[in-house]
Specification:
alpha+beta; 3-stranded antiparallel beta sheet; single chain
Length: 74
């Protein structure tokens, strides 16, 4: 019969945690910027902001993303 080390057995197992990327819904990001979601789509086309991430068919973006100022948005 094997003996169990009670000190090791009582410690919780360490699990690897994934770093969760922060995401903000596309509409909320647009509202915070004071623009429409269509304007955000145009900004993506012009390279002002990166393309959104799609999760289950919905658009998300990193909330810390700042629009590039060196490109004319018009």
């Amino acid at each position: 019969m094997a003996t169990i080390d009670t000190a090791a057995a009582s410690q919780p197992k360490k699990t690897k945690t994934k770093k969760v990327q922060q995401r903000e819904p596309w509409r909320r990001y647009a509202e915070r910027r004071g623009v429409s979601t269509r304007t955000l789509d145009r900004w993506v086309e012009n390279g002002i902001i990166p393309a959104p991430e799609y999760v289950r068919g919905r658009k998300y973006i990193n909330p810390d993303t700042e629009p590039r100022q060196d490109i004319d948005a018009a």
